[in-house]
Amino acid sequence: MGNTRRKRRNRNEYYFDNTLLLCVLLLLFCGLIVLYSTSSYSAALEHGDSAYYLKKQCFATALGLVGMFLVSKFDYHRWVKLAVPIYVVSLILIALVKTPLGRTINGARRWIFIGGLSIQPAEAAKVAVIIIMTAFICALGKGIRRIKSIIVTLLIAALPAGMILFITKNMSSAIIVLGIAAVMIFVADPHYLRYFAVVAGVIALATLVVMLIVGSGESDAGGFRGDRIKAWVDPEAYASDEGFQTLQALYAIGSGGIIGKGLGQSMQKLGFLPEAQNDMVFSIICEELGLFGALCVLVLFGTLIYRFMIVANNAPDLTGALLVVGVMGHIAIQVILNIAVVTNTIPNTGITLPFISYGGTSILFLLAEIGIVLNVSGKIHLRDVE
Q1: What is the 3-state composition of the chain as percent helix, strand, coil, each rounded to the nearest 5?
Q2: Calpha distance 382→386 (Å, rounded)
Q3: Dihedral through CA 377, CA 383, CA 384, CA 386, nearest 10?
Q4: 285 CB contacts (<8 Å, ≥6 apart)?
Q5: What is the DSSP string of 275-313?
Q6: Angle separating helix axes 18-47 and 52-72, nearest 10 degrees
Q7: What is the mean pLDDT of each run of 10 residues along the chain (386 residues)?
Q8: Residue 119 pairs with which residues in a beta bridge?
Q9: Is the separation of the CB atoms in 124 and 90 below 8 Å?
Q10: CA distance linking residue 358 with residue 54, whole number of Å
């Protein structure tokens, strides 16, 4: 009788990914520690308070955790039903950057201020694209395998990506939005060979563009993005301008060694490395915590991506699986691109490191995405977990 009751109870139990939640909390905790270490010097100089950036990030993180909890209790199917309004609102937010609500920070007009709060619309667009792509792909079903359907689906993501690029001049976020769409389509369509062909074509085209810009011999070839490509190829030749940040990041990475200089002991954060708490925070991790600390952070991200795969693989339906794949694609792309930029593997594009770099809007929307994933995981029956 006892065994029968136990089996009956187990059949009604649902799965919850505690490992995924733990990874997120550890990344947030590490991020706050590294942020304070990285930003305390510049915060004291600029704002008279060494904890200025930490306080703002703590507030955003606390708000984000509350939002994550609330979103995790909200049935993910409802987000998909609201896909079109969410998508339209994200486009409106991007357009508002060009209005008086738009604000310029550090020379870039990418934010809007509403009710005293600053919002970066590009972050909202990433979530909106995940939701609208899920709704559209699920509506198409097997029709997503047709070339025409793939093109139309990509155009849905291309609209906010184009607005981000031309209105906010934020190429990195535009690339991430298109990357999210590409990952979701790739997972939904079993014809993988044609995607490998497309990737090979894009790499070949990018290589050709780099060769043309570098080999042109003209100082203004390709505009400021051309300058970034030239600085990527030979940062020492542009050490006083476009290559300065990259070189300082490489100095930080190289000086950290295996175990690092120790938490708070970075030299590059003392005014040498611009935006150390934002795009280049990984280089400070390498300098202060060494290769060991950097690998620990990468292991956390790797474990997080793996847990996304587990949840997506066991999701109760295609809708849940695609939502998780979209979040996984977003975070994976951003982590890879950020580390690639910091190590000068690709040209500098200004991409932040999820959960660790400074940025309130980024934390809020990232934790909202985690809330969606947790809601999907909470719908999985334990008997179905592989």
Answers
A1: 75, 5, 25
A2: 9
A3: 90
A4: 34, 293, 294, 297, 356
A5: TTTTTTHHHHHHHHHHHHHHHHHHHHHHHHHHHHHHHHH
A6: 150
A7: 46 74 95 91 86 92 95 93 94 91 78 81 94 93 86 92 90 92 89 82 84 68 68 76 82 87 84 81 91 94 95 92 96 94 84 90 94 91 61
A8: 112
A9: yes
A10: 9
Contacts of 99 (CB under 8 A, 6+ apart): 112
Q: Assess contact for 308 and 289: CB atoms under 8 A.
A: no
Instruction: Report CA-CA distances (Å) from 55 to 1, 105, 107, 263.
Output: 56, 19, 24, 19
Q: Are 380 and 311 in contact (CB under 8 A)?
A: yes
Cα radius of gyration rounded to whole Å, the chain: 22
Side-chain-side CA neighbours of 58 within 13 Å: the count stands at: 8
Contact 320, 75 (CB under 8 A): no
Residue-level length of the chain: 386
Cα 201 to the center of its chain, rounded Å: 25
Distance CA 159, CA 313 (A): 30
Q: Under a CB-based contact definition with an 8 Å cutoff, are residues 156 and 90 in contact?
A: no
Q: Which two tokens stand for residue 263?
A: 């938490």
Which residues, 6 or more positions from 109, have their beta carbon under 8 angstroms from its beta carbon? 97, 102, 103, 168, 169
Q: What is the rounded distance in angstroms from the CA atom of residue 377 to the CA atom of residue 20?
A: 10
Question: Please, which residues have CB within 8 angstroms of residue 273's CB and are 6 or more apart in sequence?
Answer: 245, 248, 249, 252, 280, 283, 284
Residues 6+ apart with CB under 8 A from 141: none
- Asked if 273 and 280 touch (Cβ cutoff 8 Å), the reply is yes
Q: What's the token pair of residue 214?
A: 């570098």
